[in-house]
Amino acid sequence: MSNGDDDPADAADDGEPAETAAPTLPDDATEESLTEYLDEIADRLEAAETEADLDDVEALLADAETGIDEADLPEPDEDDEDADDPRGDLEDRVAELRDGVDDARGPYGEDVVDAIETAAGTVEDTEWTDDGREDVAAAVESFVDAAADAIDDALGDADEDPEALLAEGEAADAAAPAPVDQLVAALDAVAGAVTDADLDADDDADDIAALLDATDELEAGLDDAEEWDDLETHEQLRAQGYYDVLGHYKDFPVEWAALKEHEARGNVDMILLALDSLQSEFMERHCLEAFERMGKRGKTEASVEEILGRAEKRDQPAIRILGTMAAEEATDTLVEYVPEDSNPQLQKVVFKALGEIGASEAVQPLANQLDPDGDTDELVRPHAARALGLIGDTRAVDPLADALEAHPSDDVRAAAGWALRQIGTREALEAVAEYADEHSFVVSTEGEKARDALDDEAEPAPTA
């Protein structure tokens, strides 16, 4: 700042404004002198027009901070909450001015790139309706045109021409807007061109401002474009053709009527759509029941993924469905539940599902459940035996034969006999046939059936 003693010879030539001298840190640093110094810095900040000007202000604030630290200023009384704190007030003023410097800087080319990348992420990650896709395409095309006006030379030197990318996408299907991946590629191309242009916050301020205006319009266009989340549930279902199968119907709600028709036609994707979209317990139950009735007809990669996700939360209806689907993908998850003796109802459902799947990996874990000295609920063990029969693996013959011979529960023994008959090898049938005259009716019934099967094998085939 000037002290009035400047040599007139040092003044600027007539007609040229004199450059204001930078303020200097006062030699006698008091609260008043430091406040005046900060006032001068504030004036300089207000007059700053370039990044270099702001750098100068930043340097002055660093000096001010040093001066405040070194100044001999009165300290506030710690016991008086309302006591003056000159040092704290000055430090707050410096922080405020630093914020002002940050606010005054830019905008920069990096800000444009960030805005474009954010928009590209929105375009790519949002599920748009058909109408929304058209609006998104229009917004992107408008942005690319505006960017071309602002940085035409940079776009011309870009690795990929965003306008050509859009034209390529439209050429693929003249009746439809450019695909989302082409729109994203066009935005990425503009972002790359802006980066390569290395725009200067001072020299290219107009171009940066124009690009930011264009990104604001792009963002507004994307905000206005219709996405699936904007629609009510029934509108989403209608737009995706869920109700198209309905003719004359008598079941209400109509979603249930449509679900029945989709089940009859094997439209797995539509049942999954209803399961995902309709949040009522009523429709959730009917969707799951539809899958259970469909069995293997309802097995697709998507349906197994959905149902398995529920089974991983020990959802018993989902586990039943995986069994009816014979979904081998569920084996590892279900085998983990076999030893859960504290939840016998879950075990019953899991054992049956593993049997229906034919999971050979479950043979030993299920055989372990037949041990009469184990912790498995007595009512659960017959289910383990029957599951082994459904799997049909000959490795189960010995543990099943042991259970048939020595288990104290007739229900377990009968289930073991039934399972051995399902395995059906001669060794398995002979193990059961020994008990045809057993005192227990349920066990002897299995023995008689096994003996009859062996007799049928022994009879010679009729000659022609």
TrEMBL record:
Residues 1-17, 28-40, 48-58, 66-84, 454-464 have a biased composition (Acidic residues). Residues 443-453 have a biased composition (Basic and acidic residues). SUPFAM superfamilies: ARM repeat. The keyword Lyase applies. SMART domains: EZ_HEAT. It comes from the Archaea. GO terms for molecular function: lyase activity; oxidoreductase activity. This is Phycocyanobilin lyase. It comes from Halorubrum ezzemoulense.
